[in-house]
Write a structure and sequence with these properties.
Layout: E1 3-6, E2 10-17, E3 29-37, H1 39-49, E4 54-57, E5 59-60, H2 65-73, E6 76-77, E7 82-83, E8 90-96, E9 102-107, H3 116-123, E10 131-134, H4 141-150, E11 154-157, E12 176-180, H5 181-188, H6 197-210, E13 215-219, E14 225-229, E15 233-237, H7 250-263, H8 268-283, H9 295-299
Parallel strand pairs: 1-4, 1-10, 2-8, 4-6, 5-7, 10-11, 11-12, 12-13
Antiparallel strand pairs: 2-3, 8-9, 13-14, 14-15
Helix pairs in contact: 1-7, 5-6, 7-8
The structure holds alpha-D-ribofuranose (RIB).
Alpha-D-ribofuranose (RIB) binds near residues 8, 10, 39, 251 and 288.
Length: about 300
């Protein structure tokens, strides 16, 4: 069984700021750093650090080759990556405020330039039983889902960042979804963003009644995380408290560790706890990919 993350890779330029800038406002930064990111590359790094045998495939410019070196250090196979001769690597302009919250602007670069021949070349070696892990920062997601399903692959989808393209995706082919409360609410057609445990459970049930063959992992920020499937039912874990320094990449860390735990046979309840611990450690550190803990760090007492 092999795992393929087909997704974005970005150079994250992070500005540390007092507060997220408002319209018309100019504010100073008290720190700036370039680091490796992109939801796809971050999730591949999390799976690699969690000990899974994982491939990362994405398209980037030669300015981002150092990120591939970093992924290799985390045990990720990067042989399916494509270096564009014409485009630059995706860029993320990130503000992180004093409470660790972030705000992100993306310039897609190579991420949105995968062509059909390249996608065929990536997917042709994967087959029945392998899993593809997707986010929403690259082009041709609908085609990728159909191609992967035709290969017999299982499909894991984190529809983030959520945009209007998603209504055209064949989401009924997805086996595992990772959604936050906003994405989940939009997918379920719920009127308001859930706030209480009761409302999160209601949302989880709405999602599973809309997509009964899928597994949903619903992250609820400070309110914890939920797992629901028709087969196993509903499970919950509260967050595990760590001092918040930078929340960038916390969701990707959660995805990677949750998936790695479920795939290694952990029960949903235990997998939620492991993923919560991993993302708690990630928010206590700066950066996205670099903040993802290793397996040893997650399981250390
Ligand atoms: O999920 C965090 C990531 O979102 C950042 O690394 C940034 O590159 C954006 O893709």
């Amino acid at each position: 069984m092999r795992y393929l993350v087909l997704g974005s890779v970005n150079i994250d330029r992070t500005f540390s700021v007092d507060h997220i800038v408002s319209p018309g406002e100019t504010i100073p930064s008290y720190g700036i750093a370039d680091s490796a990111g992109g939801k796809g590359a971050n999730q591949a790094a999390a799976l690699g650090k969690a000990g899974l045998s994982v491939y990362f495939a994405g398209k980037l410019g030669s300015d981002g080759k150092w990120i591939l070196d970093q992924l290799e250090e985390y045990g990720v196979n990067i042989s399916k990556c494509i270096i564009s001769q014409v485009s630059h690597t995706g860029q993320a302009i990130i503000q992180v405020d004093r409470s660790g919250q972030n705000s992100i602007i993306l310039d897609a670069g190579g991420n949105m330039e995968l062509d059909l021949a390249e996608l065929n070349g990536i997917l042709e070696d994967f087959q029945q039983g392998d899993m593809i892990i997707l986010q929403n920062e690259i082009n041709s997601i609908a085609e990728i889902i159909r191609m992967a399903k035709a290969n017999g692959m299982r499909i894991c989808m984190n529809p983030s960042p959520f945009d209007e393209r998603i209504s055209d995706y064949p989401l009924d082919l997805v086996d595992i979804f990772f959604v936050n409360e906003i994405e989940g609410r939009l997918m379920a057609g719920m009127d308001t963003i859930p706030c209480s445990d009761y409302e999160f459970r209601l949302l989880a049930h709405k999602l599973i009644s809309k997509f009964p063959t899928a597994v949903f992992i619903l992250t609820a920020g400070k309110n914890g995380a939920y797992y629901i499937s028709s087969e196993k039912g509903l499970f919950y874990s509260p967050i595990i408290d760590y001092p918040v320094v930078d929340t960038t990449g916390a969701g990707d860390t959660f995805c990677g560790y949750m998936l790695a735990s479920l795939e290694s046979g952990a029960e949903p309840e235990d997998a939620l706890i492991i993923a919560s611990r991993a993302s708690g450690i990630a928010v206590s550190r700066k950066g996205a990919m670099a903040s993802i803990p290793t397996k040893d760090e997650v399981f250390r007492k």
